[in-house]
Structures are given as C-alpha cells and as structure tokens.
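Protein modeling request. Please complete all fields; requests missing the sequence field cannot be processed.
Requester role: graduate student
Desired output: 3D structure, token encoding
Chains: 1
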Amino acid sequence: MWSVSPTVPGSIAAVAPEQDPPVAESSSRPKRLAEWPAAPLLSTERLSLEPLTPGHAEEMAPLLDDPALYAFTGGRPLTLDELRRRYADQARGRSPDGTQRWLNWIVRGAQSGQPLGTVQATVAVQGESFIADLAWLIAAPHQGRGYATEAATAMAGWLRAQGADVLAANIHPRHDASMRVARALALTPTEEHIGGEVRWSWPPAQGLVQPHA
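Delivered output (213 residues):
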C-alpha cells in the first residue's frame, strides 16, 4: 500500500497490478499541464518517496557513482557539481518552454531514512491526453529487494489518480529487472523503438509519441 503524506490533502490506496487502475474524477483532473500538481511526499510500507531538492545531491552523488548503473541506459556517473546542477534544474518542476512537468523523488528506506535511489516522471500533453514518461533507479547495494517496483508503483498510482491518461517507459530489451517493474505497473511493450530501447505503455497502445526533450 502507499499513501500521500498527511501534509498533502487526501490519502490514496495503492492499486495491485492485477486490478484495473483508478480513473481520476473529472473535478480533480488538471485541465492544463500548468495545473499539474507538484510531486508530493509519498509513503509505502517500506519506503518514503521524498520530492527532489538540490540539497539531495551531496548524499546521492556517492550512491550514483557506479558505472554499472548506466550499463543499459547509457551515460556515466555525474560529479557532485554536475549532479547539483541537474537537481537544481529538475527541482524547478518544469521544462524551460513549459511543455513538460518534471516530477522527481528520492527513494528512502522508511525506517532507516537511507537513500536508495530515485524515481521520476515527465508529464507532457499529446492531443487531449496527459502522458507520463517514467524512470526508476535503485543503487546496486539495494537491488533485488523489490524497492524499484514498490517505489514505481507508488509513483504510478499517484499519477493515475491525478489524471494521467498514459504511462510509458523506454526499456532496453535486455534489461530484465526493469521489464519486471514495468509489468508490475501494468505496462506492456509496444512495437516502437527509441534509441535502441522498447517503448512500454499503459494502457496497451501502439506507436506512442515520446514527449520532446
């Protein structure tokens, strides 16, 4: 189960993968991207999802300083200064042109408070639909315990409750762990390939267009 922090109005139960995801009521669904809410503090049985701030860079830099984390996604570990700049940009919550809503969380152990990784969503508009592109990353020492699925499920449940029409993720075809997370979120692979990765989506769809960077 997951819930929104008591500091945020409302409390929403998690949706098990085998259940139909909830549909937000029309009165609460944002009418424009500019109305999309900021990332709240989310809680699950074992985890706390804390909205990203630039101050998180110091504790996250050592955790993310592992080339193995980027074997499937590409890239390299960022220096502390680079991570500070990235987090400062992401914490603004919106792209410079206003066409994307950026939602980022630090994943922590609920009891220990120890940072474990990150989850993120980029929300954009396609036609009349809100499309949320998802990503998740758990540091190597904490992998294999279901944290990515638990954290991503909390994020996806909140996004669906806000009115996201489509959830999507680009996953390397050999990244078995990420594919398991996607399936737990009820995402299914499409025929679309982007940069060598397979586009997964919920609800099942073909040929989704990825929001422009």
